[in-house]
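FORM 7B: Structural annotation worksheet

SECTION A. Query
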Amino acid sequence: MDKITIKNLEVFAHHGVFPEENALGQKFIITAHLYTDTRAAGKTDELSSSIDYGELSRQIEHFLTTHTFKLLECAAESLAETLLLQTPRLKKVCLKLKKPWAPVGLPLETVSVEIERGWHTAYIALGSNMGDKENFLKQAVNALHTTPSCEVIQVSSFLSTKPYGVTDQDDFLNGCLKLRTLLPPRELLEVLHRIEQEAKRERIIHWGPRTLDLDIIFYDNLILEDDDLCIPHVDMHRREFVLKPLHEIAPYKHHPCTHKTVREMLEELS
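SECTION B. Predicted structure
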């Protein structure tokens, strides 16, 4: 990925734990590495095909002078999110906020915080076998699309499938969606659980009936194995009701462990 760098932008702002820092203000120095694709700009020589670093510098200055934070960590986090949400071609940003002459009572040059944040692609499986199934799935799609730092890119059609695990229950309506998000996996999982709770999801019987079921199938090419969260989803390759709608929107997505495509996994299962 290509990179545009804004180095040592000086901003006078009012951030700090101590009240006098908020009242008097001080100088902050910001370096931003902007990750984007510069190919189109390189071929057309048009600013509209790139990121306007002058405008983005003014955006950084405006943000830091119109907000007040106690911690550099919070200032950096909030600024990174704002830049990613408001800059169309920005895929990832690395921010370094330096605070010269930090009031620690000892001689030092600067204290700094450096973070890297960017957009991620997740695939989410949806299912319902209680009440108005289609409405529950549509409400979940809309809830994700209106969640800050999330954007639904593509949604599969919904298909009716037989229950998995506990078979003595109503058929399911299933689907998958492609999500663009700034949220890390655990924060995304918390959002999914909140949406399930809003749909009155009850976790009484494992694999039992539910108004709404939302699972993270893929998150970029991440491999994560924790007690309460496994990515890719541990059973996805065995579940036709996941693979069929996923195949509709991402047939050539590779499983990061087996390196098989969704199409290959579906063909093997069939």
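SECTION C. Observations
Residues 72-86 form the longest helix (15 residues). The two ends are 38 Å apart (CA to CA).

SECTION D. Sign-off
Analyst initials: ____
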